[in-house]
Amino acid sequence: MPKAQAYAVMNPKEPLVPFAVERREPGAHEVLIDILFCGICHSDIHQARDEWGGSTFPMVPGHEIVGKVAKTGDAVGRWKTGDTVGVGCFIDSCRECESCREGEEQFCEVGMNPTYNGFERDGKTPTYGGYSTCMTVDENYLLRIPEGMQLERVAPLLCAGVTTYSPLRRFVSPGDQVAIVGLGGLGHMGVKIAKAMGATVTVLSHSEHKREAALALGADDFIATGAEGAFRENAKRFHFILDTVSAQHDYNLYLELLKRGGTMVLVGIPDPVPLSAVPLVMQRRQLAGSLIGGLRETQEMLDFCAQHNVAADVEVIPIEKVNEAYDRVMKSDVRYRFVIDIASLREKSA
Ligand code: NAP
Ligand code: ZN
Ligand code: ZN
């Protein structure tokens, strides 16, 4: 059995610690991958700290995974040893429900199988994520990484990339005024992708700190939402707002920034906040949500990013720094995604 070195959360109040995981030999339609890089998503922290409830432990987080095919099952046709592949937020789904058949596996009506903090299709084998040296995945749930991309900068695309690409592709046309709220892992991908789609992009950040960095990333304008008059002065300015903020904030204020008929999509998942009908009703605005993307759309996003030279801005860390990285994400102190170099885990086992 392939053995993986990993880092796990044993309970929500404690830091991650070294942990060993047994992976299975690839079945006929499965692939064993050696993991090279794994991004740290804020959702890893929400789940590690059980902020959404229902977390299961031990937990090996990580759903922004890039690796190389190490071994293929007998019936695998699509992949060969050495191929560069990605794994995102789920590793399986029922394949039969309406959502699965439409390529929207993330909404599988029976329940998709999350890459970690969940179970395989048997409903009892826990899934362990990408803070580990290898994993066994069904061939149909892998993504192809286009050639020539810097792999540490590609890993975050598997969650942050597709989570922002999906609603932008759905709602944004070239020339639209687009606001990205929150300049973290998701937000900075939102800026890059919206620009590549031809939008005019404004970053809304909770303080002045990231103004220069936002403009350097390609944003056309910047608003510090904490500044006096920020909401009043920008009323009815945007066709579309993508809200990536992980902490509680007043959605009603942001809705007032939409033009008549404009749409705001929530992808950040903070604790609930009260919502008024007034800003929606009075200007026929729309408020929506969006969850990652299906396999087809994730592949489309990877190809789009390769074509437009879009990748994440990352801070690559060895596994030993993972707890420090969690603390820094909580302080919004990351430009813009931590990515674990899994070679540092492999060295531990050598
Ligand atoms: P992140 O890197 O921590 O970025 C979140 C950003 O929110 C921060 O950079 C900060 O931006 C802003 N923020 C944080 N605390 C704030 C506060 N107290 N007040 C106002 N703004 C604050 O997180 P991420 O990985 O991008 O994830 C963002 C959220 O999306 C998380 O809730 C995550 O679970 C969720 N998520 C959802 C999906 C989905 O499919 N819907 C997928 C992945 C992640 P500024 O400093 O610019 O204000
Ligand atoms: Zn994520
Ligand atoms: Zn399904």
Can you offer a commentary on this structure?
The protein is an alpha/beta fold and 350 residues long. The protein folds into 2 domains: 3-159 and 293-349, Alpha-Beta Complex (Quinone Oxidoreductase, Chain A, domain 1); 160-289, NAD(P)-binding Rossmann-like Domain (Rossmann fold). Helix content is 25%, strand content 27%. It contains 12 helices and 19 strands. The strands form 5 sheets. Strands 3, 4, 5, 10, 11, 18 and 19 form a 7-stranded mixed β-sheet that branches. Strands 14-13-12-15-16-17 form a 6-stranded parallel β-sheet, covered by helices on one side. α4 crosses α10. The longest helix has 13 residues, at 295-307. The chain is globular. It starts with a strand and ends with a helix. The mean pLDDT is 97. The site of NADP nicotinamide-adenine-dinucleotide phosphate has 28 residues, from α1 and α5.
Give the topology, please:
Layout: E1 3-8, E2 17-22, E3 30-39, H1 42-48, E4 65-72, E5 84-87, E6 90-92, H2 98-101, E7 113-114, E8 118-119, E9 126-127, E10 134-138, E11 143-144, H3 151-154, H4 160-171, E12 177-181, H5 185-196, E13 200-205, H6 211-217, E14 221-224, H7 230-233, E15 238-243, H8 251-255, E16 258-266, H9 278-282, E17 286-289, H10 295-307, E18 314-317, H11 322-330, E19 337-341, H12 343-349
Parallel strand pairs: 12-13, 12-15, 13-14, 15-16, 16-17, 18-19
Antiparallel strand pairs: 1-2, 3-4, 3-10, 3-19, 4-5, 5-11, 6-7, 8-9
Helix pairs in contact: 4-5, 4-10
The structure holds NADP nicotinamide-adenine-dinucleotide phosphate and zinc ion (2 copies).
One zinc ion binds next to helix 2.
